[in-house]
Amino acid sequence: MTDNWLLARPEVDLDEVRALARREYGVDGELTELGSQQDRNFLVRGVDGVGMLVKIFHPTVDAFAVDLHIAASDRLRSEGLLTPEVLTTVDGARTTQIVCADGQVARVAGFQIVDGQPLSDITDADGAQAEELGELVAEVADVLAGMDAEDTDRNLQWELGNALAVVEQLIDDLPEDRREQCLAAARRAAAELDAVAADLPRQVIHGDLTADNVMRDRRGRHWVIDLGDVATSWRAAELAMLLADLMGRTDDLAIVARAVAGFDQRARLTDAEIEALWPLVVLRGAVLAVSGWSQLRIDPGNDYARERVEHEWQVFARTARVPSAEVTAQLRLAAGRPHRAGLVYRPVLSQLDAAATVDLGIRSAHLDRGRWTVPGTEQALVRETLASAPVAVLRYGESRLSRVSTDTTRPAATRARCVELWTRPGVEVTAPFGGILTVDTDPDGAAGAVEVRDAGVVLRIEGIVCDGEAVAAVADSRVDAGARLGRIAELEPGLGRLRVTRRVRDAAPAAAFADAEGEAETPGAADPSVILGTDRVPDPVRATRRARRVREQAVGAAAERFYAEPPQIERGWGALLIDTQGRAYVDLVNNVTAIGHAHPEFADRISRQLHLLNTNSRFLYDAFAEFTARLVAHSPDPSLDTVIPVNSGSEAVDLALTLARVATGRRDVIAVRESYHGWTSAADAVSTSAFDNPHAADSRPDWVHLVDAPNAYRGRHRGPDAGAAYAREVADLARSLADEGRPAGAFICEPVLGNAGGVIPPAGYLTAVAEAVRAHGGLVIADEVQVGYGRLGSSFWGSTMQGLVPDIVSVAKAAGNAYPLGAVITRREIVDALAREGTFFSSAGGAPASAVAGSAILDIIDAEGLQQNAARVGGIIADGVRALMPRHPLIGAVHGTGLYLGIELVRDRETLEPAREEAARACDLLLGHGFIVQAASERQNVLKVKPPLVLTEADAHRFVAALDVVLGALRD
To answer: Among 544, 548, 573, 576, which residue's Cα sits nearest to residue 561?
Structure first.
């Protein structure tokens, strides 16, 4: 039997492997060998990127086994699971063969390449990943259970039914000092397994579904690979393979338990299976240990086996040192069951079954309107809850919004790794299960704690006054389930609180609250919810990873998002954004939410309108008239007396171009390079940003004519005469077009170059351009979508900052505070020209709720002095960053004004070489400091600062300090 297990990899001619790939599959390229114990795997990829995986099975693997491998692959794919497709040869066959160096014939199969990496190579295992893998293992097991095969029993070295035999026959290959330990542990585990083996479900399983055999592709999806060990075994063995792998990688029973929880959520484990899991895990570790050393004896050139041999011993050592009974207790709790079979927990408090849960999560409606920022909010909500319930429960795993720090540079520990039970003081506390009692309290009556320990489960209850039976108890005495432990101490007038935590075996106590980056569950702070009968909150890390995949699947790679692994933002307040893990960030990128996130007046006014009416804008209602009148009152000039609401900035620019065309009878437009104006066909036509569209310069229609961006910092013209020089380019082009008989109908430009990072055109440019364009009958369109609405501080509109009165103004973003609203402001006669071609309406633009939103924003900007705040707070940032320039040569310039700023990073202040990589790195580092910043401009080297206008002075100072630290880190 040993000969069937000790199989050295077949020797093959590499040129023949490459020739086989070319001949049988039409793929030619260089070979890269991938590791394997007993087979040979080669990646073949040509210069054109086309490739495949060539798998050469060991010659002892018969046709039935290869067919089973292929059948399992087909089964998974047919049920929607991702696994590499088995390729067909040029003749339509699903396998071929190759002659090995010793003359034996080996079967060969070709597989699709997965563009990704094994999880074991790209990420450390954490609880969220373990739970996700547990669920994946269950899903694979469910699918394979339905396989229709005549005989799937295989005498495999890795099938755990053979485990003890494998260990006993290969034990002598282990170093001598390890043999006794390994053999004794394997025999003990086998005996424990024998006790329940008859009750274990059997089916076809993958047989090696670990982090090595799950790949993550670029879209975050998980692929199951390497089906070479498919065979009939115990279903629990499928999960045991994963648990052994996780224990070897982490030595953390809490993470291992998360995998059990994931599996059980998808496919419920039987009690017998839970009882069998750890013996199976120990046997898996023992098989790995002896097999690795045996493989090196017969195949000393196997680098793959050599690199893994010590890790495989660690898998065994870590699993074998923990008593099965104590681990089983933890795994039962992970599966939502009492830690002993047949045990029924007694309530800790007599009325716990009538308890009410207090929602303190990031999305909690109880914490709207900024209530989460008020000190004492948790206790206030508890008191409100106790008015109608005997006990208030604060859940394990919850990222408590009430604990989020508004100083984003000093994040707080927000994620609860405890359960809190609030009620009136003096209520009796009883033991939920029997065990060894430890009392950690003052017998004179001061509040303290007790611990009850059984089968490696340690339950700690804090906030208790021990008296009566408990006070008389001595350390390490036995207590029965339901025994009185004491009474709840008074924490504050009329309120008592029990804080309940759980530990795994002899783990040291961990903090009851973790920060956003902390593990949700640890051996020192495990979940006691099953024991208490309370609900827990799912791990937000897992939810965030799922949300990323769902979004990627839904919208594809073309949709832009912030960061490669963005935080999941589910609440905002003012200039703050809060993620689901309980971390707050200062939002420095959001010129959309001008009046801040979750503004109560804004929300109330829209909500009220939605209760009344929301329909398309062709009906008559007050909100439309009120909004347009309010916007006219803020227009750049009294001559701009007409407003047309639309639903977005793209639609505003599109309509502005249409108005210019119909008013002048001309279609030609002069646009500025490096600009972005929107995504409709017309708006995109005048958008020339190579970052947003790398082919922008080559794809402009013939009616769009480009001029250089008026950038006096790094553009063609610099110095005091730059404005006039750039304006002459426009004047010359306007004259040339007129001479050609195709005079420009419009010139379009952002009055502050937002896409460039807030670059202000040089003095005199805009007025000179307007004069030149109008001299030939053209109109001037000011695209104020990004910079208007008081953001610039010194003026409400970018155009008026330089004395320009445009003919048409397009606005959006701030106009709706992320509600679908924009507008075009212009003169009456220009709009009247549109009527000659037909009427215009925008279904959502100017609809009742949108119109109310628009009026509310203008009212709030005025009432709260947000334009003035932009000037003041923006000045703090601009002056602060300029003060950093002497010690940070990476800062080339600070562009913009108010709260539209651009911090341009350069590698050399003379050559102005863009520091693109440094800017990207700075954004990532600033996120760690609690600031969301993104790079802008064609060169992606400008840190754009365009926050909500409610940004505080304190946050401005903190940002400058954080930037100082980040730039120092980049320099070092």
So the answer is: 548
Which two three-digit tokens encode residue 21? Answer: 């790939």
Biggest CA–CA distance in the chain, Å, is 106
Contacts of 783 (CB under 8 A, 6+ apart): 653, 656, 675, 677, 748, 749, 750, 751, 810
Q: Which parts of the chain have pLDDT scores under 70?
A: 1-4, 148-150, 305, 441-446, 467-476, 554-562, 690, 692-693, 695-697
**How, if at all, do strands 704-707 and 669-672 pair?**
parallel
- What's the pLDDT at 842? 83
Q: Which residues contact 887 (CB under 8 A, 6 or more apart)?
A: none
- Secondary structure percentages of the chain, helix, strand, coil, to 5: 40, 20, 40
229 near 156, Cβ under 8 Å? yes
pLDDT confidence of residue 921:
96
Q: Tell me the β-bridge partners of 270.
A: none
So what's the pLDDT on residue 1?
Answer: 46
Non-local (6+) Cβ contacts of 621 within 8 A are 613, 848, 851
Calpha distance 711→722 (Å, rounded):
8
SS3 assignment, position 496: strand
**One-character DSSP codes across 81-128:** ---PPEEP-TTS-S-EEEE-TTS-EEEEEEEPPPSEEEHHHH----HH
Three-state SS at 494: coil
End-to-end CA distance of the chain: 61
The strand pairing partners of 747, in sequence order, are: 670, 780
Q: Are 816 and 854 in contact (CB under 8 A)?
A: yes
DSSP-assigned states of every residue in 43-88? EEE-TTS-EEEEEE--TTS-HHHHHHHHHHHHHHHHTT---PPEEP
What are the structure tokens assigned to 320, written together? 């074998």
Beta-bridged to residue 780, according to DSSP, are 747
Residue 303's pLDDT is what? 75
Virtual torsion, Cα 269, 270, 276, 282, nearest 10 deg? 10
- In whole angstroms, what is the distance from residue 400 CA to residue 152 CA? 51
Which of 197, 262, 199, 208 is CA-nearest to residue 230? 208
**Taken in order 38, 39, 40, 45, is the CA torsion positive or negative?**
negative
CA–CA distance, 833 with 814 (Å, rounded to integer): 28
Q: How many CB atoms lie within 10 A of CB 218?
A: 11
Q: What pLDDT, on a 0 to 100 scale, did the predictor assign at position 172?
A: 93
What is the Cα gyration radius of the chain? 34
d(CA 720, CA 702): 34
pLDDT at 742: 96
Spatial contact of 346 and 433, defined as CB atoms under 8 Å apart: yes
How far, in Å, CA of 879 to CA of 366, rounded?
A: 40
How far is Cα 813 from Cα 949, in angstroms, rounded to an integer? 13
- Give the C-alpha separation, 473 to 53, whole Å: 67
Instruction: Identify the CA nearest to 615 among candidates 388, 835, 846, 401.
Output: 846
Q: Which stretches of 753-854 are assigned E, i.e. beta strand?
A: 779-783, 808-811, 822-826
**E strand segments, 812-930:** 822-826, 891-897, 900-905
> Rounded to whole angstroms, how far apart are CA atoms 436 and 477?
5
Can you read off the two tokens belonging to residue 230? 């498919």
Concatenated DSSP letters of 127-155: HHHHHHHHHHHHHHHHHHTT---S-----
**What is the signed CA dihedral for 938, 943, 949, 954, rounded to 10 degrees?**
180
Both tokens assigned to 800? 């008026």
Name the DSSP class of 713. T
Distance from C-alpha of 844 to C-alpha of 838, rounded to nearest angstrom = 19
- What string of H, E and C letters represents the secondary structure of 628-686? HHHHHHCCCCCCCCEEEEECCHHHHHHHHHHHHHHHHCCCCEEEECCCCCCCCHHHHHC
Helix (H, G, I), strand (E, B) or coil at 729: helix
pLDDT of residue 840: 80
The C-alpha atoms of residue 593 and residue 606 are separated, in whole angstroms, by: 15
